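Structure in, sequence out. Go:
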């Protein structure tokens, strides 16, 4: 009875007819959030990050025009970034809608667009040493960072169809890779290893990764947490040549879980990087899960190089792993998509183009050193 009376007096429960989306703007820009409701008889409450919005005169303007509810923000600043929620309420009920507002930088790295050209160049790439049949890349990083998914994505791009034969872990605390596996793509070979964990006695041994870098481990070797390969193993290569060694080390880190990369992880990764430095092996970082790490990038991957969040995460990786920014590549793996996507392909192909060149440079230098 009371509900019917409320409807008669104030109309039906508020519902949104149109809503606002996540937005990005440059510093100093203007943002307008507007929603149309099914009724004008509702009280509007605006919140930012779960707290009632404190309006600043000359910068914030809240309006209602019949069934249209509007928030305008002038001279948008970094402190204005956040999640904005509009709640409409009357005695018949309430409803809410939220969106994330973010500052977009000027494009600080060019978004690659020429997928077909990059693909053709990679397929026709000539390795500098005729005695080496393939350039070899080793992917390593924490469990669930996306190492196996990178391989699936690369093979999907080259095969022009979804490839899911490389088992990928969805959880940060579990690794599906138990053996030293090789995944060939054209004249390139990608090697997957067990994920790193924080504990020194669990997960992938740093000693095994270092042995793999030096070319001492055969494909098929089963990793044993806490127990590195020994020289008497049938999977141990005593005197590896250039065709058995790794030509580029790829560290894989998840953009949305950088806060979980503790000192234990970083210590292991630094040990591996220091050994790679001693060997002269080029090293890069693939920053995965960028769509989860940044709302703007998740909504529009083409804006990845305008994202302040992604740039900040890359800078953190650069400091923590002492890797130059131009050796860090934010990428998105195929996950929920069933069709290939040009922007996903372009980001990955651009990263591949760079690491193939650097791996070949290393091979050329090493070949020259061996002939002296």
């Amino acid at each position: 009875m009371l509900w019917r009376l409320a409807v008669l007096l104030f109309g039906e429960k508020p519902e949104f007819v149109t809503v606002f989306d996540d937005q990005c703007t440059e510093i100093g820009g203007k943002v307008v959030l507007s929603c149309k409701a099914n009724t004008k008889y509702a009280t509007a409450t605006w919140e930012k990050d779960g707290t009632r919005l404190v309006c600043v005169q000359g910068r914030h303007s809240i309006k209602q025009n019949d069934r249209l509810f509007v928030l305008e923000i002038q001279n948008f600043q970094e402190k204005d970034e956040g999640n904005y929620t509009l709640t409409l309420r009357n005695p018949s009920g309430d409803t809410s809608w939220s969106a994330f507002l973010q500052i977009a930088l000027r494009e600080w790295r060019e978004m690659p667009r020429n997928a077909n050209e990059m693909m053709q160049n990679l397929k026709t790439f000539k390795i500098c040493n005729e005695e080496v049949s393939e350039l070899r890349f080793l992917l390593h990083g924490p469990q669930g960072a996306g190492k196996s998914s990178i391989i699936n994505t690369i093979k999907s791009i080259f095969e022009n169809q979804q490839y899911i034969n490389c088992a990928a872990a969805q959880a940060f605390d579990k690794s599906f890779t138990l053996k030293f596996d090789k995944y060939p793509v054209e004249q390139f070979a990608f090697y997957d290893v067990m994920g790193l964990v924080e504990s020194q006695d669990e997960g992938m041994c740093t000693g095994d990764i270092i042995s793999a870098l030096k070319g001492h481990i055969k494909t098929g070797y089963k990793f044993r947490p806490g127990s590195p390969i020994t020289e008497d193993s049938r999977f141990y290569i005593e005197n590896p040549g250039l065709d058995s060694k790794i030509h580029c080390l790829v560290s894989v880190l998840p953009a949305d879980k950088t806060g979980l990369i503790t000192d234990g992880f970083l210590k292991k990764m630094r040990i591996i990087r220091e050994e790679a430095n001693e060997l002269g092996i080029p090293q890069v970082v693939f920053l995965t899960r960028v769509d989860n790490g940044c709302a703007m990038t998740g909504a529009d991957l083409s804006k990845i190089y305008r994202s302040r969040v992604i740039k900040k995460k890359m800078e953190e990786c650069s400091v923590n792993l002492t890797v130059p920014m131009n050796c860090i590549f934010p990428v998105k793996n195929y996950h929920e998509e069933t069709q290939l996507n040009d922007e996903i392909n372009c980001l990955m192909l651009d990263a591949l183009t760079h690491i193939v060149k650097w791996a070949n440079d290393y091979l050329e230098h090493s070949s020259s050193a061996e002939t002296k």
